[in-house]
Prior knowledge:
Layout: E1 2-4, E2 17-21, H1 26-31, H2 42-50, H3 58-67, E3 70-74, E4 76-80, E5 90-94, H4 98-102, E6 108-112, H5 114-123, E7 129-133, H6 145-156
Parallel strand pairs: 2-3, 2-6, 6-7
Antiparallel strand pairs: 1-4, 4-5
Helix pairs in contact: 2-6
Amino acid sequence: MKIEHPIEPVWDKASKILILGSFPSVKSREYGFFYGHKQNRFWKVIARICGEELPESIEEKKALLLKNHIALWDVIASCEITGSADSSIKNVTPNNLNEIIGESDIRAIFTNGKTADKLYHKYNKNSIITLCLPSTSPANAAWSEDRLYEYWNARISNYL
C-alpha cells in the first residue's frame, strides 16, 4: 500500500541549505514531524552545529531551522515501505523540489544517508552542490553522535 508523505517542508526565502531525508519513519509520521524517533540524532547534531539549545516542540524545531537558514524535507512524496526500513522502499513518487530551490537561496543540498542520496540523484538534475552525509538514524550505529556532529559540522557550517 502506498503511503503519502504527511509532513510539509520547512523553508523560507532565506534558506541557504536544504537537508533531505528519504521518507519519514513510522515514529515521525506518528509524531507529525521530521526525525520524531527519540533515538534519531538529527536534532542533537543540528542544534550543536547551530550553537542552539536542543529543541523540544515542533515549533521550536521549525524556528531553529529557519533562524539558521536551513530548509528540511524528504526526497519521497509517496512510496510503499515496510515499517521504517529504507531498504524496503519501492514504487517511489519523488517530491518536487523546484519551489524550494527556485524561491530560496539554496547553495547546497545535503542528503541524510545513502538512500536519500541515491533517490535524490535518481529523480533530480540540477547544478547545486550535493553532499551525502552519514545517516543520523539509530540504525547507523557505526557513527556515534560526536562523530556525526564532527562530520556534518565540517560540511554544513561552510554554507550557513
